[in-house]
Amino acid sequence: MTTGQSPCRNRRAVTASAPGCVVQAETPQVQPVDSQQQA
User: Per its UniProt entry, which superkingdom is the organism in (predicted)?
Assistant: First the structure.
């Protein structure tokens, strides 16, 4: 993963532990935690 691209536009949300966003290695799209729970 490149440092230039930060998930959820936040540098702190680099890890999947971020409360606002989840980083998915399989999918290039960063989905919010709410969508993750529904799926």
Answer: Bacteria
Please give the chain's pLDDT, 39 residues, in tens: 555 555 555 555 455 455 555 555 555 566 666 655 655
Domains of the chain: total: 1
Residue 25 in any domain: the answer is yes
Q: Angle 27-34-23 (CA atoms, 0-180°, nearest 5)?
A: 30
Tokens 């709410």 sit on residue: 34
Collapsing DSSP to helix, strand or coil, 8 comes out as helix
The structure tokens listed for 39 are 């799926």
Which helix (H) or strand (E) segment holds residue 31: the answer is strand 31-32
